[in-house]
From TrEMBL:
Keyword Membrane (UniProt): yes
TM segment ranges: 63-82
Name of this protein: Uncharacterized protein
Keywords from the named record: Membrane, Transmembrane, Transmembrane helix
Length: 119
């Protein structure tokens, strides 16, 4: 599995510039019209705070999809599993009765055979 790590931090070597290298990076002085100028400079962040606005609650349709639909699927699954378990129990009991009757017939058959051999 591959992973990718992204970092917004500036390497520490870029933070320690001496005065000579700082002086060599002078921005170009260009004239720009007021329509192109950005308020507060190009590289300044907006320092206004975040505004949290309240809004209306979720709609009835989204509540149905969020709660009623999954609950109905859960109820249907439980009901179906109960029906399947009852059918399996019924089939098991029928097989048990069948095997017991076969065992009883086999016992009677061997008892009759043993009685005939002694006579």
């Amino acid at each position: 599995m591959a992973s990718l790590i992204l970092s917004n931090s500036v390497p520490s070597s870029a933070l320690h510039l001496n005065t000579r290298s700082r002086a060599s990076f002078r921005p170009l002085q260009t004239f720009s019209s007021p329509a192109i100028r950005f308020p507060g400079g190009l590289y300044r962040w907006n320092t206004r705070g975040l505004v949290v606005r309240t809004r209306a609650g979720p709609s009835a349709n989204s509540l149905i999809f969020a709660f009623v639909l999954p609950l109905s699927l859960l109820v249907a699954t439980i009901f179906t599993s109960i029906k399947i378990a009852d059918k399996l129990d019924r089939d098991y009991l029928e097989d048990l009765v069948l095997y017991q009757s076969m065992k009883e017939l086999r016992r009677l058959y061997f008892d009759l055979r043993n009685v005939d051999s002694f006579a």
